[in-house]
Structure formats: structure tokens, C-alpha cells
């Protein structure tokens, strides 16, 4: 994945140290390792304390809640049933457990993608296929 070895000095957003940035979070190798350790700590804490709130995890593990939200959106972190931690759906604001959208909004977007393809094509495949082929065509035309 390393396409270009040219130096790309960036300040680490956690400790401010300059480092050679390649991809992903703007974190120096040391902070990257520390955040990985934090991630494991948070994951374990949530498993050991079902029903814990975002603030409690944040304080117990000494990690900003923005990190916890980020891990949840990336679906690296999973919440147990009955967990007090929720994220907001980016479309309607409904509480969700992971990702970016609630199931209702996911269905809405899927239906919209399905309608788009149907108006361009008469075939009746399953909706997953339809939205996938719409995406493919979009990428090819781009
Ligand atoms: Zn750093
Ligand atoms: Zn929603």
C-alpha cells in the first residue's frame, strides 16, 4: 500500500510530535500503539461491565469519548444488549449500537438505491445485487 516513500511530516494529533505520516489516523507510531492498547482496555471494560455508560468507560479507561465513538462507528467495538452506550444515527439522530445509520435509514437508502436502478433497468434481482451493481456502474462511469 505504500505508493510514495516521500516524507510527509505531520504533527501527531495526540502528542504533537512530528512523524512521517502514511495513512489512517494522524498519530505517531508511539501514540498509535498506545491507542491500540487503550482500545483493548475499553473493549475489555465494556465486556466486563455491561450497562456501563460512555462517560464511565471514558473515565475508567482514561480515554476521550470521541475515541470510543470512533471505534464504534468503525465497528471495531461491539456493544452488548442493554448497554447504556449509544451512537447517533448520522441521518435521523436515532440511537444506534454501531456503524453510522440506524436500520430504518439503512432500509431507506437501500430502497432509494433500488429505485434508482429500477428506473434504469427493468430486471428484478434482489435489492443487495441492485444497489451493488448501481455502485459498480457509478464507479466505472466516474
Ligand atoms: Zn504521538
Ligand atoms: Zn436513522
Structure description:
A hairpin with a 6-residue loop joins strand 3 and strand 4. With 142 residues, this protein is mainly alpha-helical. The model has no long low-confidence stretch (mean pLDDT 83). The radius of gyration is 20 Å and the shape is flat. It has one domain. The longest helix has 20 residues, at 29-48. The two termini are 22 Å apart. The chain has helices spanning 29-48, 54-61, 65-73, 103-120, 127-141; strands spanning 9-11, 18-20, 87-88, 95-96. The protein binds zinc ion (2 copies). One zinc ion is lined by residues 12, 14-15, 17, 27-28, 30-31.
Number of strands: 4
Order of helices and strands: EEHHHEEHH
Shape estimate: flat
* Beta-strand residue percentage: 5-15%
* Helicity, as a percent range: 40-55%
Gyration radius over CA: 20 Å
The largest β sheet comes out as: 2 strands, antiparallel
Number of H/I helices = 5
Any low-confidence stretches, pLDDT <50, length ≥5? none
Strand order of the largest sheet: 1-2
Instruction: Count the domains.
Output: 1
Cα-to-Cα separation, first versus last residue: 22 Å
The hetero molecules present are: zinc ion
What's this entry about, in short?
By secondary structure, the chain is mostly helical. Helices cover 49% and strands 7% of the residues.
Amino acid at each position: 500500500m505504500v505508493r510514495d516513500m516521500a516524507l510527509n511530516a505531520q504533527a501527531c494529533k495526540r502528542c504533537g510530535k512530528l512523524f512521517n505520516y502514511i495513512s489512517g489516523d494522524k498519530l505517531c507510531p508511539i501514540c498509535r500503539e498506545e491507542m491500540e492498547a487503550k482500545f483493548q482496555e475499553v473493549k475489555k471494560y465494556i465486556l466486563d461491565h455491561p450497562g456501563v455508560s460512555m462517560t464511565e468507560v471514558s473515565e475508567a479507561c482514561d480515554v476521550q469519548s470521541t475515541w470510543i465513538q470512533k471505534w464504534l462507528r468503525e465497528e471495531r467495538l461491539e456493544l452488548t444488549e442493554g448497554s447504556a452506550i449509544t451512537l447517533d444515527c448520522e441521518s435521523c439522530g436515532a440511537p444506534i449500537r454501531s456503524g453510522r445509520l440506524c436500520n430504518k435509514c439503512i432500509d431507506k437508502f437501500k430502497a432509494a438505491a433500488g429505485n434508482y436502478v429500477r428506473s434504469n433497468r427493468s430486471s428484478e434481482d434482489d435489492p443487495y445485487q441492485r444497489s451493488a451493481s448501481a455502485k459498480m456502474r457509478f464507479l466505472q462511469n466516474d
